[in-house]
Design goal:
Pathway: Amino-acid biosynthesis; D-alanine biosynthesis; D-alanine from L-alanine: step 1/1. Belongs to the alanine racemase family. Catalyzes the interconversion of L-alanine and D-alanine. May also act on other amino acids. The protein is an alpha/beta fold. It has two domains: 208 residues, Alanine racemase (TIM Barrel, Alpha-Beta Barrel), CATH 3.20.20; 124 residues, Lyase, Ornithine Decarboxylase, Chain A, domain 1, CATH 2.40.37.10. 27% of the residues lie in helices and 22% in strands. The strands form four sheets. Strands 1, 9, 12, 13, 14, 15, 16 and 17 form an eight-stranded mixed β-sheet that branches. A four-stranded parallel β-sheet has the order 5-6-7-8. The longest helix has 15 residues.
Length: 367
Amino acid sequence: MPASVPKGEEGAAPPFAARARALTSRSALLDNLAALSGRAGVPLLLPVKADAYGHGLDVVARAAAASPHVWGLAVAVPREAQAVAALELGRPVVLLTPPTPQEVPVLADLGVRIPVATLAEAEALPPHARAHLKVDTGMNRLGARPAEAVAVGRRLAERGVLEGAYTHFATSDEVDLRFTHEQFRRFQAVLAELPPLLAHASNGGGVLSLGALPGMGLARPGLASYGFVPSHLHGVLPLRPVMTLQAQVTFVHDVHAGETISYGGLYTAPRDLRVATVGLGYADGYPRNATLRAHVTVRGERRPVLGRICMDQFMVDVSGLDVHPGEWIEVWGPADINVSEVAAWGDTIEYEVLTGLGARIDRAAVP
């Protein structure tokens, strides 16, 4: 007979605890939003796509909705728009990528602002929809080219559904801003041919590099809102990383000198070690490429990750520390190891590390 499942209240199975948790600092997020809005000179359309850059859609959206500096929330796909709308936060939701024709009426009924780039899309909008004209000024990813955008925007205005227009800067986080200035010039030329509307262009790099832009009603800083900026823009604003990632020790054991640790035997213990196994791995988004480079913080001390990072766990040298199963260690956070360092160990970027955090990790807000 299979073992019975322990029951909680009213016969329900008790919840199982997560082995890792991402803690979002509400104060850090709100401070970042205030600083970015102040530099841009306009309210923010905060991107919360990809589970709010891994921080937790529900957690971030609720915190951001309390900020007077946030006009609305931007998402990448209709499912995200539906999820934010369901929170009933009283803030506009803007979809940034094209929906299918079947999704348009549902999004319009939810009040989601819909991106439009063609005359066919403009004609197909329900009369109660609100559209944001997508202008391609050089990213060559989505949107109408400037000459086409004017015609689409005018038709949307004629139909009474045009609320906003936007473009996306391709190189605003680079040192050389010449192409960014050219993109903005092209965008301004389109806006000059349309009735007044809510325009937005700057991502985080644009806000930090360019500050307030004439004619813009919103700004869309993404990763910068969560506390990360290109190295050459450090110090422009006092932004703070918002997330602390913690993982739980699941096992503690001794490894003798000369024994190897983890897959492939890549690490050989140079002496007797006390080793903790931690319940986080590459299936949770911790980069496997950080093998033999990664460190974590244990009881305030930076300690190396030993051997190959596994799918669900990794091992840490805790020699000399009184560490026990159930204890939380810090994988990254503002106090010591930051996401930029982890990304460098994994030969990747902060975006990929943060958005790669998996569903097995709990998300929670902290002060």
